[in-house]
Amino acid sequence: MHKREELDINMKLLQYALLVFLGACSYGTLSSIMKLGIGEGFSVPEIVGGQYFFGWLMLVVMTLLFSRHKLRWKQAVVLLACGLSVSCTSITYGLAVGELPASIAVVFLFQFTWIGVLLEAVVTRTRPEPMKIISVIILLVGTVFAGGLADHGLSGLSWKGAVFGMISAISFAIYIFVSGRVATDVPILTKSLSMITGAMVVVFLMFPPAFIMDGTLVAGLWKFGLPMGLLGIIIPVIFFGIGVPKIGSGLGTILGAAELPAAVVMSVLVLREQVTMLQWAGIVLILGGICLPQLALVNQKKASTREKIERAGA
């Protein structure tokens, strides 16, 4: 019986961790899709606007079908405000992709790993666990290899792209942090719709959605906006919203590192970019860095469960 309880706890933790992992992988596909859209002649504002247009529409339909929860006005205001971090990530990351190669843009965004762990430590006033620090170091080394920096360095890169990339990293770390702490009692679809509504308002203020009326949408923008809405809004926002509150923002940030391997693999499959052996080695390091804290968490939960069982038996 005791072993079954331990197994159930471990399986639930791994399920929540898997959701965050899949959400990060989904987000990692965006840079390649955006590059394809830019290659077809669409601008970054149009592609990002299309992403939010379709993502918001899909969330509205899903919420009407499966979630009729009414928000208190305070909850609504907080969630709309939290959407600012989502929109800031999309806008600045989109601008970074427009200035940098897809595999390099995601390296800058990837800095959210150590920023997120640092943010959690500052807000909670606790020192990061040694395993988290080791994991982040492994992730950063893997980033240097996987992003191609060990092969090509940073020479000749756009400074504007680098700045936009770092801003996107900061805002993404904030998003992961707040998604695990804000309105955790609100059903996930209602919560996601509120956040994305706030984010979409900001995106449309920055990038007026002329594409809805001028024919750009039906002329081909939908081919990029629709998958980006699904992979960049629906899947990550919902999966992060379910998983991060259960495993914590620190581990959620580390699991978010799956984004870079996904981006590199997509750049090979979709953009036909060349990936060196060092980059593949970096991907292996990143996946190893992701696994370490998950194993530590499972062992920690096992020890906690055993202790509770022993106390109950005594």
Automatic annotation (TrEMBL):
Keywords: Membrane, Transmembrane, Transmembrane helix
Domain EamA: start-end pairs: 17-145, 160-292
Record membrane topology: Multi-pass membrane protein
PROSITE patterns the UniProt entry points to: PROKAR_LIPOPROTEIN
Presence of keyword rRNA-binding: no
Principal subcellular localization: membrane
InterPro entries: EamA_dom, EmrE-like
Annotated PANTHER family: ACYL-MALONYL CONDENSING ENZYME-RELATED, SOLUTE CARRIER FAMILY 35 MEMBER G2-RELATED
Pfam families the UniProt entry points to: EamA
Subcellular location: Endomembrane system
Family affiliation: Belongs to the EamA transporter family.
Signal peptide: none
One GO CC term on file: membrane
Protein name (Swiss-Prot/TrEMBL): EamA domain-containing protein
